[in-house]
Amino acid sequence: MTAVTLTVNGTERSLEVEPRTLLVHALRDDLGLTGTNVGCDSSSCGACTVLVDGQSAKSCTMFAVQADGADITTIEGVADADGTLHPMQQAFHEHHALQCGYCTPGMVMAAISLVDEYPGLDEGGVRHGLEGNLCRCTGYQNIVDAVLAAAGSGGD
Amino acid sequence: MTITEEAPGHVGSRRLRKEDPALLTGEAKFIDDLALPGAIWVGVVRSTEAHANIVGIDGAAALAIDGVNEVLSGEDLAPLWGEGALPCAWPVTPDMKNPTHLPVARGTAKYVGDAVAVVLADSRYAAADGAAAVVVDYEPLPAVVEITDAVADGAPLVHADLDSNECYTWGLWGDNAPAVDAAFAEAAHVVSERYLQQRLIPAPMEPRGCAAVPSPAGGELTLYSATQIPHILKVMTAVVLGIGENKLRVVAPSVGGGFGCKLNVYAEEILCSALAMQRGAPVRWTEGRAEAAVSTIQGRGQVQHIELAADADGKVTAVRVKLLADMGAYLQLVTPGVPLLGGFLYHGCYDIGLYMFECTSVFTNRTPTDAYRGAGRPEATYAIERAMDSLAVSVGVSPEEIRARNFIGADAFPYESAAGLVFDSGDYQTVLDKAVALADVDGRRAEQAQRRASGSSKRIGVGFSSYVEMCGLAPSRVLASLDYGAGGWEAATVRISPTCKVQVVTGSTPHGQGHETCWSMIVADKLGVDPDDVEVLHSDTAVSPTGLDTYGSRSLAVGGTAVYMATEKVIDKARAIAAHQLEASEDDLEFSGGVFSVRGTPEAEVPLAGIAFAAFTAHDLPDGMEPNLEAHVTYDPPNFTFPNGTHIATVEVDTDTGDVDLIDYVAVDDCGVQINPLIVEGQVHGGILQGAAQALYEDAVYNSDGQLVSANLGDYLVPSAAEAPRFRLDSHATPSPTNPMGVKGVGEAGTIAAAPAVINAVVDALRDLGVTDVDMPASPQTVWRAIADAQGGAS
C-alpha cells in the first residue's frame, strides 16, 4: 500500500492505496465521492471526468498515486456551499441537458474545463471539445446549448 | 372523459425537471454507488469460445490471489437454482424451442460471453483479477455465427438436443396467400428488397450491476439492480429461485439509461440473489464495459425480405415480408417476441389491403438478442421506408409523392389495419407537409442538382422516413392473444396528506425519462396544487408493490393514465366530503384551482386543503366513509397508441472517401398531447441519434469464429457530440382517443424513424451514380465500395 495525499474539493485527504488503484476508485470507494461515475474501461466515455489541478482528466485513466499532491475537483465540489448550483450545472438544468444523468457529472466537469480553457468557443468548438464524453440519452443538442449558454457565447 | 386539460396549467409547459439537482450534484445513487460493507464481490468467468465443451476449470491461479476466496463452476452452482433457469416470458408459438438457460453454463459454452464460472472475492479488484486468472480448458465445437449460416443445409447445431437451429416460425394471415399472389401477379410495379439489420449493442452509459442483500435474521432478501423492471424482476426471481414473493424486495436505484437492455432477468441477478441467500452476506457484481458487450443482450439482428405490389400509379396493393431473426444462443425475457412487435407494422403508415408477414427465428452462437429501443418497430420501419423509396423510383415520382399516394387518410381513423390493429388517430399528410417545408426540400434538391451538374465530389442527398409505431404496451387481452406471459396494465396510487401534500406511487420505473416531473404536472393540474408539492415514489417494490415497469413507450400512455385516473378517484372522494361539509349535492359542486364551490353560490366553498385535513381527522365524514384521501387505480389500456411522424435527413456524401456527413435533420412527430414539450424534445433528440447511429456508425461485428471484435467503446462507435447533427423539430398533435389525456408516447419515435431517413438520404445522394442500396452502418468503406461497385467494380 502506498500513502497518497490529495486535496479533494478543497479538503486535504490522506489515504493508503494499492499502487494500481485508479484515481476514480480512490475517489469513489476510499473517499465515498460516488458522484464521479465509471462508464467504460477504455477511457472512451468520459463519465469519470474530474479536474486535476484545474484541468479535466479521465480519472479511470490515472492511478491515484499519480495524483499524489494534486488538487482534485469532483462534481461534489462545484456547487456553492449553500447549495447554489455552479453556472454550468444550472445551465444543464435549464437546457434539459441530462436525462438519465449518468454521464452528467463527467460531462459537466469536462464542460467547465473546456469553457475555462477556451473562452468564446462556437458550437463546433464545443462539439469537438466534448468529443471525449459520451451521452446516450440526449443526442447532445441540449448539452451543447447549455455549454454555450454557460460560456456566455450564445445558445438558446 | 375529456381530451384536453383545463388551461392554463402545468401540462403543456416546458417545466424544468425535478430529477435534475440530485443528478447534477452527484447525490443520486446508482447501483455501484451503494456502500455495502462486507459484501462478496462476484467476478464472472466468461467463455472465450463461441461454442465449446467445457473440459476443465482450474481455479488454482485465481485462488492464489490475495482476496480471492472461491472459484465455482456451473456444476458447483447448480444446486443453487435446482430446476430453475433464466426465464423467457414470451413463448410465441406452442412449439417454440426454448433450451434451458442456466445462469452459469454446465458442460457446454454457447457464445463468447457465456458465463462458465464465478469467482467470489473481497474486493472489485480481486474479483476481476480472479476471473481473469481462472483457466478454462475448452474443446471447441463448430460455431454458427451468421443468421443465414444457421439455416444452411448441414449447419452445426447450436443446441445438440434440438434437431435444427430454428426456434420458431410465426406468421400473420397465411390464408391471404392466394390473394397476395394474385396482387403480385397483377401488379404494375413490384419491389423486392433484402435488407440487413446488423446487431447493435445498446450501451447505456451505466453498465449493469446488482447487489443482493439478505436480512440479518435470514430468510428475506433485497435485490438492488440497475434494471428497468423491478416488479417483473421480483416475480421472476421468486419463481426461478423458489423464494416467497413476500420475502423478496427489488429496488432499482438511479438507473443510468436502459434502452431495453435492462428490461430483462439476467444471470447475475439470479446468481447474486441465490448466493446471498446461501451465504447470508451481501453479494454484488458490477459489469465492465467490454463485458457488457457480450453479457448484456444485443439488439436487432435480422435479414429482411420485403416485397411490395403496386398499381400503375404506385398505390401499394400488397406487402409480403419474410424475416430471418437472430435469437442468439438462448432466449432471454422477451427475445422471441421482438420480431413480432415489428410484424404488425411492415406496411407502415400506408393504407394497404393485403399483408403477409412470416418470421423464422434461429439460434446462433452469439449473445442473446432482445428488446433494444424500438424493438421490432425500427426494423419494420426501415424495411417499408426503404422499399417505398424503391417504389418511388420505379413509378417515377418523388419520395413524398409516393407516400402521399399511399398514406392512411386523416379521415380514416380509427383505422383497422390489414395486420389487425386499430390505429387511433393521425394526420400523416399534414405531418409530412410540415416536415417538407421545414427541411427546405426544394432548396436541397436544387443544391443536389447543382452539385451533380458541376461534378462535385460532395453529393447532397435528402431522405424521408414516415413512420407509425404501436406504443402504450398493452391491452392485456391482446397480449394474451400473442401468448405473452403477463398483462399490460399499470398501477398508480395517489395520496393527499393532512397538510395537502401529494404522494404519487407509480408502477412505472423511470431511468431518465422524467416521470417524476411529468406525473407531478399531471397531478398538480388536476388537484390545483404546485407540482413541487407532489412527490413521486417508484422503483422499489416495498414502496410501489404493483407495477409492470417501463419499456415500449408505455409509461405515459399507461402509467401516466393510471396516475390521472387515480387522481380523479381521489377528487371524487374529496367531492363527497366537500358536499357533506357544504351541505350541498355533489352534482352541484365545481372543483377548480384546488377549491370546491357550490355552483351559483360562490361564497360556499372549501379548499382541498380543508378536505384533506377533514379526511385525516375523520371527525365529520359522511356516514360509512373511510378516513384519508387515497385512491389506487390499475389501468388496463383498451388499445395501443400509434405515434407517428415524418423525418427528413439531409446528408453530404464525399464520393472520393465515402464519408457521410449528416448535415440536417428535421423531425415532425405526432405523439399526441404533450405533457412537457421540453422532455418530449429531449426524447426525440436522443432517439434520433440512436437511430442515426445504426445507420452510420454502430455494428456489433463478429468474425467467423464468433468473436465479437467491437466490444469496447473504442471499436463500437457510439457517436459523440462531434458527429451529432443539430435537430430541427416540429410537432402535430392528433390526440389519442384511447386515453383521457390524449397521449401516445415518444420514447422510441426517434430511433424508429431515423435509420431509414439517413440511409434513404445516402442512397438519394448517390442514385445518379447507380447506387440503389447501402448496407448499415454506412461507414466510409461501405459507401465507397457501394459507389465503386455501381461504377463497374473498381476496387
Structure at a glance:
The complex is a heterodimer of chains A (156) and B (795). Chain A contains 5 helices and 5 strands, in the order ββαβββαααα. With 156 residues, chain A is an alpha+beta fold.
What can you tell me about this protein's structure?
- Chain A has 156 residues and is of the alpha+beta class.
- In chain A, 30% of the residues lie in helices and 16% in strands.
- Chain A has 2 domains: 75 residues, Ubiquitin-like (UB roll), CATH 3.10.20.30; 64 residues, Orthogonal Bundle (DNA polymerase, domain 1).
- Chain A has a 5-stranded mixed sheet with strand order 2-1-5-3-4, sandwiched between helices.
- The longest helix of chain A is centred in the C-terminal third of the chain and has 14 residues.
- Chain B has 795 residues and is α+β, with helices and mostly antiparallel strands.
- Chain B folds into 3 domains: 155 residues, Aldehyde Oxidoreductase, domain 4 (2-Layer Sandwich); 187 residues, Aldehyde Oxidoreductase, domain 3 (Alpha-Beta Complex), CATH 3.90.1170.50; 327 residues, Aldehyde oxidase/xanthine dehydrogenase, molybdopterin binding domain (Aldehyde Oxidoreductase, domain 4), CATH 3.30.365.10.
- Chain B is built from 21 helices and 28 strands.
- In chain B, helix 11 packs parallel to helix 20 and helix 19 crosses helix 20.
- Chain B is globular.
- The interface between A and B is large, with 58 and 58 residues.
